[in-house]
Write a structure and sequence with these properties.
heterodimer, A: 142 residues, B: 353 residues, mainly beta
Chain lengths: 142, 353
């Protein structure tokens, strides 16, 4: 496995988008990755730090992958827009996840026993088991 | 001179293509921002509409005096083939730092100016057609150096043909009203244009994009001049051929990209060129040429806002610029280039695809 500066998936996507060969050699991809690092490595480091993004291979790759699709005429402007897009998208996804998990988190909150009645279920009239049995028998045909 | 120039360009293209083939970095039919025309270049292959606009009176108009016109340019520099030493790293301003790009384009355009109400039937005054070939090269300078965020130097070599045509209704009106004076000159020539550019992007993330350019347009066949000495009307008469065979120019443009969530950037663009004032002096035959013609520095200034759009499809790629234009100098339209001190001003929209 080649050691790349960016995530393999991003490098391959950008390579394909740039009109690269459909049967690239090992050297083609490694050189392409090195070209990306040479062109954008320092700018990514600088702008991601300024924008407060954690810098690791995955976040650098994500920003790099978004860059060509961002508004802005210069590489620096596109990278900054990509950083803000990634931060905004992460926040939106985190908030959505928090909303969907809210009932579960409440249910698992300390002091809540499994099977305990909730406020909503308390409104329902509890039916005694013997009464349930009588109802079932009553519905049977004679 | 031309032979050496052509050989140098050919050699440069061959050497570059060999290098490109080894690295498989050749592209075809793709837009690359190596030496995009500035907004204010008067006869660039770009698409814009100037309306409403006011212009000084044209020679041989039925009714003298300034009037309302619209001035339309339709054109595009069609990218053909090229290469970049660092594929996948380009931005709209061009190649990345340390990279080099070279390409061939085909600029095609026509430029129409129409009288809007002064003369009967709103005649087309003139149409200029231009087509040719264009070689552009661009180098990316190191980022964050000498006060710029990113920067490029670039060069272009353009060759082409320009054919100019008076409107038929304008011609008929001129023949009716100015029968004794009207002449129809065949302004038609081949040219080459050598230009160089320095394009720094300064400020945070290169927000202020500056283009400083200079060049010179030369006649490909100087002895033929800018126009044919034999008149098209009245046929059989001659005017002295032109002797000056080049027109130097300089250009400046600054674009301030939008910030935050805004989609409007501001642009100021200027083209200044030392135009030849054509001299249509009656002579007995086609062998005579003028002594050196007078010239006039002609200025075209445009300023406005550019709307940045995003999204899929053609509309997402269309970036309109709303501008005010002021032109002063030699009339840039066809045979009317004998008119100096011509003024035109108005509001317009430029469409960048």
């Amino acid at each position: 496995m080649a050691s790349l500066n960016f995530d393999e998936s991003i490098v391959l996507i950008l390579f394909a988008q740039s009109g690269g060969s459909l049967a690239p050699s090992h050297d083609d991809i490694v050189q392409f990755d090195a070209g990306l690092q040479k062109a954008f490595g320092a700018t990514l480091q600088k702008i991601m730090t300024e924008e407060g993004l954690e810098i690791d291979v995955h976040s650098r790759s994500l920003v790099l992958g978004c860059r060509p699709h961002m508004p802005g005429n210069t590489p620096a402007a596109q990278i900054r827009r990509a950083c803000r897009y990634v931060i905004s998208a992460h926040q939106a996804l985190s908030a959505a996840a928090a909303v969907s998990l809210a009932p579960l988190q409440r249910a698992l909150a300390p002091g809540t026993k499994r099977g305990a009645r909730t406020r909503a279920s308390r409104r329902l009239k509890r039916v005694a088991p013997r009464a349930k049995k009588r109802r079932r028998h009553a519905r049977r045909p004679a | 001179m031309k032979g050496r120039l052509a050989f140098t360009v050919f050699l440069m293209a061959i050497l570059s293509a060999t290098d490109a083939a080894a690295q498989k970095t050749i592209w075809a039919l793709e837009n690359h921002g190596y030496y995009n025309s500035i907004l204010a270049e008067p006869r660039a292959a770009q698409t814009m509409v100037l309306f409403p606009a006011g212009a000084d009176s044209f020679p041989f108009a039925v009714n003298e005096g300034a009037g309302l016109v619209w001035d339309i340019s339709v054109g595009h520099e069609v990218p053909i083939v090229g290469f970049s030493t660092s594929k996948g790293t380009e931005s709209p301003t061009g190649v990345a730092a340390g990279a080099f790009g070279l390409g061939i384009w085909m600029p095609l355009s026509f430029h129409v100016i129409e009288d809007m109400g002064k003369d009967d039937s709103n005649p087309i005054l003139n149409t200029d057609y231009r087509f040719g070939g264009l070689l552009k090269a661009q180098w990316g300078l190191p980022d964050n150096t000498a006060g710029w965020s990113s920067a490029h130097v670039a060069a272009k070599f353009q060759f082409g043909h320009e054919s100019t045509h008076l409107g038929d209704e304008f011609t008929l009106g001129a023949l009716r009203v100015h029968a004794a004076d009207f002449i129809r000159v065949n302004v038609s020539y081949e040219y080459y244009d050598l230009g160089g550019a320095f394009e720094p992007n300064v400020g945070m993330d290169g927000r202020y994009q500056i283009k400083v350019r200079a060049g010179d347009i030369w006649l490909w066949r100087p002895k033929n001049g800018w126009y044919g000495p034999e008149l098209l009307q009245p046929y059989g008469r001659f005017v002295a051929g032109s002797s000056r065979n080049h027109e130097p120019y300089t250009q400046f443009e600054i674009y301030r990209a939008p910030s935050g969530n805004s989609t409007l950037g501001f642009i100021l663009s200027a083209d200044v060129r030392n135009r030849t004032i054509y001299q249509y002096v009656d002579v007995p035959d086609a062998a005579r040429t003028n002594p050196r013609e007078p010239t006039e520095w002609s200025t075209n200034v445009m300023g406005g806002v550019r709307q940045v759009r995003a999204g899929a499809g053609m509309m997402g790629k269309l970036s309109p610029t709303y501008f005010l234009r002021f032109y002063h100098g030699v009339n840039p339209n066809g045979q009317f280039r004998s008119q100096s001190g011509f003024r035109e001003f108005g509001f317009g929209v430029h469409f960048d695809f």
